[in-house]
Specification:
99 residues, mainly alpha, Helix Hairpins, 3 helices
Length: 99
């Protein structure tokens, strides 16, 4: 099978993720957009791995998925802590690093 449809889908989902990170101000939507970008990279890795007949891309996907799972756990904990502290998940309203 041809690799171009997989790379096209991966590029489209990555672009949607970048637009979500840049355009949205809700922390949960930004978080979901980052996860979408990680999944699009995983799709590219699997497509290239299958196209080249090498399993290193698929092994790398497991490492990326592990990091994404840890990032999801820590990221959601931070978002919940910020919501409990500031009563909002809007990134413009969260300015705890300012004096």
């Amino acid at each position: 099978m041809d690799i171009q449809p997989y790379l096209f889908l991966s590029a489209i989902t990555f672009i949607i993720g970048v637009v979500g990170v840049l355009a949205r101000r809700n922390a949960i939507i930004v978080f979901m957009s980052i996860e979408l970008m990680l999944n699009s990279v995983n799709l590219s890795l699997v497509a290239f791995s299958a196209h080249l007949g090498d399993s290193t891309g698929q092994i790398l996907v497991f490492f990326v998925m592990t990091v994404a799972a840890a990032e999801a756990a820590v990221g959601l904990a931070i978002i919940i802590a910020l919501f409990r502290n500031k009563q909002t998940v809007n990134l413009d309203d969260i300015n705890i690093l300012k004096w």
